Prior knowledge:
The complex is a heterodimer of chains A (about 290) and B (about 350). Chain A is built from 10 helices and 11 strands. Chain A has helices at about 15-25, 40-50, 60-65, 75-90, 110, 125-140, 160-165, 165-180, 215-230, 265-290, and strands at about 5-10, 30-35, 55, 70-75, 95, 120, 145-155, 185-195, 200-210, 235-245, 250-255. In chain A, α5 links the parallel β5 and β6 (about 120). The longest helix of chain A is centred in the last third of the chain and has 23 residues, at about 265-290. In chain B, about 40% of the residues lie in helices and about 10% in strands. Chain B is globular, with a radius of gyration of 19 Å. The longest helix of chain B has 17 residues, at about 320-335. Chain B starts with 6 loop residues before the first strand and ends in a 10-residue tail after the last helix. Chain B has 13 helices and 8 strands.
Amino acid sequence: MNERLKVAIVGSGNIGTDLMYKVLRSPKLELCMMAGIVPDSEGLKRAVTLGIPITDKGIGPVLEQDGIRLVFDTTGAKPHMLHAPLLREYGKIAIDLTPAAVGPYVVPAVNIEEYLDHPNINLVTCGGQATIPIVAAISRVVPVVYAEIVATIASKSAGPGTRQNIDEFTKTTARGIEVVGKASKGKAIIILNPAEPPIMMRNTIYCEVEYPVAEGVVHSSVEEMIKVVHTYVPGYRLRVPPLVQDRLITTMIEVEGAGDYLPKYSGNLDIMTAAAVGVAERLVNHIIGS
Amino acid sequence: MLPGSIRVVDTTLRDGMHSVAHQFTPQQMATIAAAMDVAGVDTLEVSHGDGLGGSSLQYGRAAASDEAYLEAVASVLRQSKLAVLLLPGIGTKEDLDMAANLGAKVARIATHVTEADISEQHMGLAKKRGMEVIGFLMMAHMAPIEIMTQNARLMESYGADCVYIVDSAGYMLPPEVRERVEALKAAVQCKVGFHAHNNLGLAIGNTLTAIEAGVHIVDGSLRSMGAGGGNASTETLIAVLERLGIDSGVDLYKIMDAAKLVDPFKTQPKEGPDATLMLGYAGVYSSFLLHTTRAAERFNVDPRDILVELGRRRIVGGQEDMIIDVAYELMQKKQKALSGKVMSPKV
């Protein structure tokens, strides 16, 4: 089947622009519009160069185009609260990269199959995308009583949105660890490191499990999960394999970005745009078939 | 020029928590706090060593909840002000609200020296709750002075009543302290403070230098309990201030009596003073000490190698997980060097 799913991106900032390159590379998606509100934004300028229809009037023109079936929203939590009901009204699926969390949390490697029919999918946070797969990989072999993650990102790849709402990151990620990762209790910590050259995104995942479990069992579950994440985030790597110490399992992950628009050290941003495309591609057959 | 008086904040019940792996009980905190209140200490900081919400696998779990500690201490204070520490990214606005509800009057909001802009919301909330706001620029030695002062100005713009230079690694030497304090004073209108660590044995000396250079607030802790080599010893500081004729409002004998209360808890790090020295020498966050000792044992590597590598990687405060990363890597290297002889971490 050669039919591609017609999609649009709302928000022409860093995330929207990086996402644009990933969508263009996808054999399953056709980018029909790039929408922003800042006429001379870098994202819109680049879209014009690439021959993609643009608008600087925000989401309105996207809604008017019947052919567009799916919309990536990269704006912000507040705008998405306004966009979500509109997209629903116009029958367009929303993939929400903001912290608005109107729809269910989705981590493609873990729970996308449960939400193939959902009109609005939220991608938790970058820390959630990076760490929840590991929590889920462990919780499917042994109950996880408590999971705590520490995400360290380069200062340069934390934008003003993250910085001004840093609590949103910790709270949303903690909830995602519980809801999607299936830990009874979750906690998240974020640290910004200004080192030069900028560091790759680093994530440490601590899982306290109900009873001791063989290291081999944990290793194979985690390795299997990493293979799945790899299909949509090529720069997702195990840095320290699960270290089992009685009931505590410590795992470390590094995320290198694809370097599409954002620099490679921005693995935290790359994993969001990569997850967005991962979700959209999984939805393609489902939507086009229906 | 020496001032006539100075405000002293005691952080035994916050930074000192690192010395006891965050295991003070609320009752123990209340007893120590009551003695310091009687001695006349202006402000007492109470929190997990890594601030509100710091109880975690990353930093170590506290013996009790933030609420339990604050309630216990608030109930015994008659004159001292209750302060809390919060690191955005670890603690949240909810934690700060809770602390305000329990009577905390001072909010110390800490960020890495280059990341002040993550503190805006928390400072805003603290101001709204009528708290005094103190901005904490941690690991101040790591940033060029202009960057440090830019970040101080940001904190001031968010409503900070005072901005601190925090020598988290105990790395600074007196001339550096003077230079930074003078630059900070020139950059902001608000008050300025200094928080020392004793890793190179300079906590009292650096604190005095900061006072000479014009800071308004300084930190101490009983028996210098605190991360790494600890802080400036409050009781020693009070004695020194008395000799200099600087009024701190603290009674020397009474603060010495209070210090006796922490003697049962004050243990020499079992790796000895060398690892503490290495923190200051390598410029590494003081609270890494305990975690480094544990990792060195677990992975059978030299703790000094871990600290030097952490310094080389320019690891910042809060990145305790990187200790495991470095120790694991050092173990792997050692393993390779021993050509195939299999070693695994001790459990």
